[in-house]
Structures are given as structure tokens and as C-alpha cells.
Amino acid sequence: MTTLYDYIGDKDKKVEEERIKEEKSYNAVLTKIKRQKHLNVNFTGFDGRLSDLIDGIRTIPNYNNLKGYVRENVLPDNPEISYAKLSIKTGIHEGVALVILYDLYNDKLEEELKDLDDEDIDLDFRYE
After folding, report:
1. How many C-beta atoms surround the C-beta of residue 99 within 10 A?
2. Does the pLDDT at position 24 exceed 60?
3. What whole-number distance in Å separates Cα of residue 31 and Cα of residue 40?
4. Do 45 and 95 meet the contact criterion of CB atoms below 8 Å apart?
């Protein structure tokens, strides 16, 4: 005969299995991110201070327009494009191309993490 303790124990096991599954998924995403973040950055005018480069380029008046153009017109055809190839294709400086790809990558990552959080909310409702 199944008791209340058995039912609670089964539910706890399912919750723990879901937690482990989510943790593995999260770790897989982090591993993928870490692999993609390694870039060989070497171009004229770059001395290694990436934060200064990013802050300076984001102040360019048409930066958001360039970023939108790359998002809408370049990335759909070339999702894995490098900053050097993007620079050649669009005629912008390599540093600007690097920062645009960096920002677009972070935007995409934030969307994916938000989607994972939304899935977590859906899972919480199932267990109530």
C-alpha cells in the first residue's frame, strides 16, 4: 500500500532529477560559452585593454545602427562570422566589428538565459 510518505518521496526524487537535469543543461551552456569566448584578438590600435575599447566604441554615434545592420543583414547568412571577416564584409574597423559581435553575443546569451528562467517558472507550476 502506498503511503503519503512514499508519495512525497517520489515527488522529491522527481524534483531532484529535474534539478540535476537543469544543472547539467546549465553547465553545458557555460562550457559552450567558454569555448566560444576565446578569440585571437590582434589588430592595429589594440593594446589589450578590452574594456576601454568596448566603452569607446559604444560611444560612436551610429554604433546602434551598425549593430542593428549586422544583426539583421549579416548574421542570418553568416552566424559564425569572425570579427575580421565582419570587418572586411561591412567595411568597419576590426575593433568595431569585435565589439559589435561581443554585444550581439551577450544579447543572445541573455535571451537564452531568460528563456531558461522562463522554463524554470513553468516547471514550478507543474509541481504545485
Report:
1. 24
2. yes
3. 18
4. yes
Q: What is the pLDDT of residues 27-73, one digit of tens each?
A: 776 666 556 555 556 555 566 666 777 888 889 999 999 999 999 99
Identity of residue 13: K
How does pLDDT run across 68-89, given as a tens digit for each residue? 999 999 999 988 888 889 999 9
Q: Which three cell numbers stand for residue 13?
A: 526524487
- State the DSSP H helix or E strand holding residue 104, giving kind and residue range, or none if neither: helix 94-126
Q: How buried is residue 46: exposed, middle or buried, by Cβ count under 10 Å (0-12/13-18/19+)? A: middle
Q: Name the 3-class secondary structure at 81.
A: coil
Burial class (CB in 10 A: 0-12, 13-18, 19+), 29: middle
CB-CB contact of 103 with 63 (8 Å): no
Three-class DSSP category at 110: helix
pTM: 0.57
DSSP H or E stretch at residue 89: helix 83-90
DSSP 60: S
